[in-house]
Amino acid sequence: MADSAHVDTFARNHLPPADQQPEFIFELPELQFPDTLNCAAELLDRHVAEGRGERLCLRAPGDLAWTYADLQRHANRIANVLVRDMGLVPGNRVLLRAANKPMLVACWFAVMKAGGIAVATMPLLRAKELGQIIDKGRVTHALCDVALRAELDAAAAAHPRLARTLCFGDAAAADGLEAHMAAQPATFDNVPTAADDTCLLAFTSGTTGQPKGTMHFHRDVMASCACFPPHVLRATADDVFIGSPPLAFTFGLGGLTLFPMSVGASTVLLEKASPPDLLDAIGRFGATVLFTAPTSYRAMAPGARERRLSAPLGGPLRKCVAAGEALPAATRQLWFDATGLQIIDGIGATEMLHIFISADEDHARPGATGVAIPGYRACVMDEQGVEVPRGTIGRLAVKGPTGCRYLDDPRQASYVSQGWNFTGDAYLQDADGYFHYQSRTDDMIISSGYNIAAPEIEEVLLTHPAVAECAVIGVPDAERGQIVKAFVVLREPGSAGESTVRALQDFVKAAVAPYKYPRAIEFRDALPRTGTGKLQRFRLRDPG
Question: Which of 262, 351, 390, 479 has the greatest count of CB atoms below 10 A from its CB?
Answer without folding.
Answer: 351
